[in-house]
Amino acid sequence: MKIHQVYKHSLGLILLSFAVTGCGSDQDSVSSTLPEVEQTCPTVMDETLFADAAALEKLVPVGPEFGQLRSTGSQVHNQLIDWIEVEAKKIPGMQIQSDSYEIERWQPMMQAENGKGRSLSRSGSLSVNSQDIPIAGAVPYSLGTSDAGNTGQLVYLASNQPITAEHRGKIIVREIPTAQDPDPKIANMVAPPYTFLFQFAKYLSSALNELQTKKYDKPFLAAELMNKDLIVAGKVGAAGLIWGFDVPRDQVKDYFDPHNGLHYRLPAVFLGSDEFAQIKALAASKMDARIVVKAERDKAMTRNLVATLPGMSEEKVVFVANTDGNTWVQENGVGGMVALAQYFAKLPLKCRPKTYEFAFNTGHLHISKEGTFRYVEKLNEEYKAKKVNFVFAVEHLGTREILAKPRLDGGFGRTLEFSGRAEPQAWFVAEDHLLMQKVAIEAAQRHNLPAVMISTGQDQPVQNRLPKQCDFGGIGNASHKNLIPTMATISGPWSLWAPSFGKDAIDFNLMRNQLLAIGDSVLALQKHSQAEIDGPYAAWRVARDQGKLVCSHSTNSGVEDAPATIQ
């Protein structure tokens, strides 16, 4: 499949990934002198020039309007990337480049009810004794079957029960673990106490203090356990796998996770809580079931789109977000970056001491070939050449908090409700980077962000590693783990992968304030020298060159198939 490009460029420019370096050629010398910013230039965002909430509300739904499921390399995903390119070309002075590459694409086969894109919930089925049991959707990257599907005996396994060779030919029934899991180790893994996360905070909004005794209970944290189970179940030759949520089916309809980009070797489906209770009871009776997944796999092209706004120097500040997604949350950073690009283009050249690069990357729903890691491979070389200032990863903005509450209708499990508060927002900055921490805190306070945690990471520190924390929670890991100065903002609400909440998942006034704070931090940092921006990263890179333990700079494995045999 070929991607149409309005601007054609030399193939020599497209290597493992591509990033525009601004005005001039690669042979031009890079000035080590910081361009002087005139006193008339803004030191914080001019709110009168930035998109208002109504404008953001028009930018964000563009993706969902093309199609709810914008899986990597799909037709509707390509339509969104094309739209971004059109919008970027409207911005005066913006330079556009693309980096296209091939993936083993996975898609559900059935069209969505509205005819826009495809549907997970319509691309699978489950039945027992010819009685259909409604599903929430097919599990992404699960194996497509014939119309006859796979048949096998139902067997329920608790979260801490291993999948073994004795489950060959069986259809395994699992509950997606939550804070209520009876195994405390698993419960803490998928729902860590807020106190664990808050211990790394350099700043907390006052509203977050009431969470000190609670757990961060979000389903995305179970994705890696699900991925491992899908791999193992495929290895042992299970006939299928059923994942059950503890919330109603209509709230998790078309849920998309895990997103590792691994083609699993068995069919799998999601159930809502009532249907899961039913299938669990049938498993206790050792009933047989039939599972069907209608999905297809093929080779397809996808692309990163890089938009560069030249400044007074080649040295660039980089913004990154992913373009694939399936909700209004995943990924509304795209609309936010378009708004930031429009704003910075309004500033006169004398007020842009750095070049601004906006990397609209693909492959986040196909992590085996994640576009941001591909892009950062080239960016790392440019950083060594002193052409990169720092990176800001922009993800999941303006999210409203959704909590799982006890059901009052007597049904199994819980139900999801908006709390009326903002979803906790993480703003990650590196440990020991006092300048970035100070800038982030001042920006968050200036815009009164209601639920922000400015933190050095979300992983357990490793004392003999530099830095001690490596996990920034999302695509910011690509640059941070490569030891390129990075800030990253992200949230993880239920609405991240569950599209049922639609537009209601987003508070556009909050999204605007978050973007203003991001812009403020960029304007503040661009006044500083590269040595100041590098901060502790410089010493960490030296330590890496000396063979000391540092964050592993994850690159794409390129392996798109789940393993076939047990090692």
Give a topology summary.
Elements: H1 53-59, H2 62-66, H3 75-89, E1 95-108, E2 124-128, E3 131-132, E4 137-138, E5 150-156, E6 171-175, H4 184-190, H5 194-198, E7 201-204, H6 223-236, E8 240-244, E9 268-271, H7 273-284, E10 288-293, E11 295-309, E12 316-322, H8 333-346, E13 355-361, H9 371-384, E14 388-394, E15 400-406, E16 414-422, E17 425-429, H10 434-446, E18 452-455, H11 477-480, E19 486-490, H12 508-525, H13 530-534, H14 536-545
Parallel strand pairs: 5-6, 6-8, 8-9, 12-13, 12-14, 14-19, 17-18
Antiparallel strand pairs: 1-11, 2-3, 2-10, 4-9, 5-10, 7-18, 11-13, 15-16, 17-19
Helix pairs in contact: 1-12, 10-12
Concise summary:
The chain has 567 residues and is an alpha/beta fold. The chain contains 14 helices and 19 strands.
Q: Which regions have little confidence, pLDDT < 50, spanning 5+ residues?
A: 1-32
Q: Based on CA inertia axes, which overall geometry fits? A: globular
> Per CATH, which architecture of the largest domain?
3-Layer(aba) Sandwich
Please count the helical segments. 14
Strand content: 15-25%
- What is the CATH class name of the largest domain? Alpha Beta
Q: What is the total tally of β strands? A: 19
CATH superfamily caption of the largest domain: Zn peptidases
**Helical proportion, percent range:** 25-40%
CATH level-3 fold name of the largest domain: Aminopeptidase
What does this structure look like?
It is built from 14 helices and 19 strands. Residues about 1-30 have low confidence and may be disordered. Strand 15 and strand 16 form a beta hairpin. It folds into two domains: about 55-105 and about 300-400 and about 435-545, Aminopeptidase, CATH 3.40.630; about 125-190 and about 220-295, Glucose Oxidase, domain 1 (3-Layer(bba) Sandwich). The strands form three sheets. Strands 1-11-13-12-14-19-17-18-7 form a nine-stranded mixed beta sheet, with helices on both faces. The radius of gyration is 24 Å and the shape is globular. It has about 575 residues and is α/β, with parallel strands linked by helices.
